[in-house]
Amino acid sequence: LVYCLFVIEWSLSLPLLIRVPLQKGKSLRQNLKEHGLLEDFLKKNPYNPASKYFPSLANDAASETLTNYMDVEYYGTISIGTPAQYFTVIFDTGSSNLWVPSVYCSSAACTNHNRFNPSDSSTYEATSQSLSIQYGTGSMTGILGYDTVQVGGIEDTNQIFGLSETEPGTTFYYAPFDGILGLAFPSISSSGATPVFDNMMNEGLVSEDLFSVYLSSDEQSGSFVMFGGIDSSYYSGSLNWIPLSAETYWEITMDSVTMNGETIACSGGCQAVIDTGTSLLAGPSTGISSINSYIGASDGMISCSAMSSLPNIVFTINGIEFPVPESGSCTSGFESMDVDGLWILGDVFIRQYYVVFDRANNQVALASLLLDDEY
């Protein structure tokens, strides 16, 4: 296992600004296809992206869905315990719990991932609390405990986290990450567990009560999440601040979705969630059908020769236009989801902008990324 190196940016005084590098890993789709299991998996695991935000839509009682269903994931390395035990996790703004596999887990999914051993940590504190999360395409159950969590150079002491005991099925078996580190609000945290960033804020470990994200495109490296600060060298112009419409997920009000100046969805306004843990961009089927019709997508595929001439999809938020081009991968980056007109602005959207998640003022900011030759 190759671990990420953490790049620590020293500010003039403590606390620190911490940048955690993110790796762009092989997708679950690729792993399943390589093992000849993709077709069977898709039949047995129908996916509803809305179940992450509306738990009643999942097959069973749920609190969140799989952080990323089939496509590219961005994940980084953290450690838990004393001495440190290392884990790769998705930094997910669409959920609020931290959990990793544990030695108490006998599921196949735990056998090929790093597992936390409480007996090897001198700072671990057990609890009698349980944790159960039903996902759209999988689930986990386990227990809650407290220990020191290292995120970059931040030592987050007395952090509550989940230790999985079961991870049924194949979903997590083929996932390239060990666990999940949620960055949404405490109000949606399973079992009322305090999220990692809330604990950081409570302990005064960050310079500002915000974090920011940069996700690289294609095969480029350099993705990161920065705790407590903003790196202005990654964007041009100014940050465009947008107030939150709910303090659960990072939910905002969107004005409209247009293409070539024509409104194709969200006429009169709609709600959207900015979610680093979802790879695609999801929205109501009527709007997604309009987008796919404009770009000539069929069954999720687009003519590669037509990619360069496709129009941008423009998301107008708080009066500002945020265009999103097609990815260039000859596949559509959009999927349908019909729940109260909700849109999920996943990595397809986030890759186009530098994003700031501000807990102090309950707002997010978007800024245009610098072009490659501007760095």
From TrEMBL:
Keywords tagged on the record: Aspartyl protease, Digestion, Disulfide bond, Hydrolase, Protease, Signal, Zymogen
The keyword Signal belongs to this UniProt entry's keyword annotation: yes
SS bond partners: C105-C110, C266-C270, C304-C330
Stretches assigned to the NTF2 domain: 345-375
Function statement: Shows particularly broad specificity; although bonds involving phenylalanine and leucine are preferred, many others are also cleaved to some extent.
Boundaries of every Peptidase A1 domain copy: 74-367
Key word Isomerase present: no
Xref: InterPro entries: Aspartic_peptidase_A1 (IPR001461), Aspartic_peptidase_AS (IPR001969), Aspartic_peptidase_N (IPR012848), Nuclear_transport_factor_2_euk (IPR018222), Pepsin_A (IPR034162), PEPTIDASE_A1 (IPR033121), Peptidase_aspartic_dom_sf (IPR021109)
Protein name per UniProt: pepsin A
Organism field: Gopherus evgoodei (Goodes thornscrub tortoise)
